[in-house]
Amino acid sequence: MANVVQASCEVLIVGGGPCGLMLAIELGRRGVDTILIDAKPGTARNPQANATQARTMEHYRRLGFADEVRALGLPSDYPTDIAYFTRYADRELARFRLPSAHEAQASVRSMAGSWSAAELPHRVSQKFVEEALLRHARNQSSVRMMHSHRLTSFAEAVDSVTAKVEPTKGGEALTIHARYLVGADGARSQIRRALGIQMVGESGVQRDFFGGRMAAVYLRAKDFYAETGHDRAWMYWAFNTQRRGWLAAVDGNGEFFFNTQLRTEEEERPLDKAFVTELFTQATGRPIDFEILETGVWIAGHCLVAESLGRDRVWIAGDAAHLFTPAGGNGYNTAVEDAVNLAWKLAAAARGQAGQTLLESYDIERRRIATRNTGYARELARSIGEFVPSPLIEQDGPEGDLARQEAGVYLEAHARREFNIPGITFGGRYDGSPVIACEDAARPPDQMNVYQPTALPGGRPPHAWLPDGTSLYDRFGPEWTLLVLASPDGATDALRAAFALVGQQLDIVLLPDEGLAALYERRMALIRPDQIVAWRGDALPDDPAQLVRHLLGHHTAAVVPA
User: Fold this and answer.
1) Looking at residues 313-319, what average pLDDT do you find?
2) How far is CA 530 from each of CA 4, 60, 231, 341, 368, rounded to the nearest angstrom?
3) Contact 163, 12 (CB under 8 A)
4) In whole angstroms, what is the distance from residue 94 CA to residue 104 CA?
5) Rounded to the nearest 5 degrees, what angle is found at the Cα of 341, between the Cα atoms of 339 and 345?
6) Do 350 and 223 reside in the same domain of the chain?
7) CB-based contact 505:344 (threshold 8 Å)
8) How many whole angstroms from its chain centre is CA 113?
9) What is the pLDDT of residue 555?
10) Fewest CB within a 10 Å sphere: which of 200, 293, 358, 551?
11) Is 490 domain-assigned?
12) Which domain holds residue 538?
């Protein structure tokens, strides 16, 4: 019998997509001994997701590599318009104009209201983001990356998990002893199934579009821009009765990601050059030479959330925990925020600083957000998928003109709904979480396209640009931050001491500013490591240690706002 190699770590991550990589980075920056295994030899080869939302970019900024990500993908001056056509080389129906990466960086400091943010969205294929995340994960001294390895089984104990791992191409098996196991292992999650967790919600939906089997083709068509003759766009949609699909620009130099829904009679056909040529030509409206780089098939019409995100020593995140139809681009971004939420809690638990409720709060907080976000994605998928092209959409003459005009009005309005979503991006809240000092106050309405900043505990801190040109978020510390917006209170030292007593870092940021105080509606706000408002008040509680215990999941008594 071959020898079985033994290894140990504090956290074992299964899955090397954006969720697993982000989790490894967050844990590594906290010095948590982490092993990440992934069956693939490296990062994704096909583009996959295409939009990094502003909240995700804010987290990349917090970690110091937002500018690096913003430089990836399309050239900095490439427009990120969403454009709709009968066919890509035929009539343009509607266009929703959005800024290039350069324009976004130049304008972010002047944005207000719903779009007051440290970062704006960035249109970049996931394959490039994964490469950046992998580089940063590998730079963490406490993180070990093991690609081309798969999990075969695991067993839970009271204080640990034992996992069996083997190389995908043969070799010595490995037993890993970990304190915690995280399944970021995708839609068919082995870990979720082993835990007996069911997915609940909606699947198997059939629509004219975004409901059924989808062909995904990563291709290179260097003559596309010249052959189609339209102004460049980030995303091209074909809208006709024969072939609907979208085409996302990957590098701005001829690489694209083409997705189209397969009809019933097409579902079993192999995605060879002949069939892909047929599909692509139907969407473009004329033959355009192209090279296939990668193909795949996926299923649209899912709106599913796991009935639980784990227990005790084993947790799930990302696609293992929720499945989206990609309308609105929320799957990958929700997965990144899962990792951000879970990482600091796992670090506290691994160090013996967390109460029982802290890890449980991951399930409570993130499952609610997953349900919210998949619901919004379903709404957007219905909006585009159930809007059926008129049989007259490509006909010459007045009737065709009217059909195209009506379609253009609808599609432009839809694009505004789908691609201008500050409410989805910033408005997710953890109300009712056991590790938030919740207030009994009215919440702003949760809306897709409008975000109303509020410092009510449980949500994203209101953002502001400071007089020196820096973002308020740049002043937050790497762990906990007490934001003091009036004259210093001597009790702040007692709060810092209470955090230090349990091994947690608290940074105190003094910014006596009437405008910020009005924005936050209190003199002080306590910001969590994942940049969520945990508590606010005009004076600290008489017993700061009690507040700290509450926020770390040691629930000996209720905490009320000062």
Assistant:
1) 98
2) 38, 12, 40, 6, 17
3) yes
4) 22
5) 105
6) no
7) no
8) 22
9) 74
10) 200
11) yes
12) 438-551
Among 428, 433, 298, CA closest to 375: 428
Ordered strands of the 303-306 beta sheet:
199-202, 303-306, 322-324
Classify burial at 226, counting beta carbons within 10 Å of its beta carbon; exposed 0-12, middle 13-18, buried 19 or more.
Answer: exposed
Cα–Cα distance, 187 to 12 (Å, whole number) = 19
User: How many structural domains compose the chain?
Assistant: 3
Q: What is the mean pLDDT of residues 344-364?
A: 96
Q: CA triplet 199, 205, 211: central angle to 5 degrees?
A: 115
pLDDT value, residue 1: 37
Instruction: List, for residues 134-165, the tens digit of each pLDDT value.
Output: 999 999 999 999 999 999 999 999 999 999 99
pTM > 0.90: yes or no: yes
Predicted confidence (pLDDT) at residue 558 exceeds the cutoff of 60: no
Contact 485, 520 (CB under 8 A): yes
CATH code at position 268: 3.30.9.10
User: What whole-number distance in Å separates Cα of residue 486 and Cα of residue 467?
Assistant: 16
Question: Domain holding 446: CATH number?
Answer: 3.40.30.120
HEC sequence for 312-340: CCEEECHHHCEEECCCCCCHHHHHHHHHH
Q: Do both 546 and 493 map to the same domain?
A: yes
Return d(Cα 446, Cα 429) in angstroms, integer. 9
* 96 plus 139 within the same structural domain: no
Quote the pLDDT of residue 559: 43
Q: From CA 23, how far away is CA 344, in angstroms rounded?
A: 9
With a CB cutoff of 8 Å and minimum separation 6, the contacts of 405 are none
At residue 93, φ and ψ (nearest 5 deg) are: -100, -40
- Which phi and psi angles does 162 have, rounded to 5°? -115, 120
Going by the DSSP 8-state scheme, the letter that residue 222 receives in this structure is T
Half-sphere exposure of residue 358: CA atoms within 13 angstroms, side-chain side: 24
User: Does residue 261 share a domain with residue 141?
Assistant: no
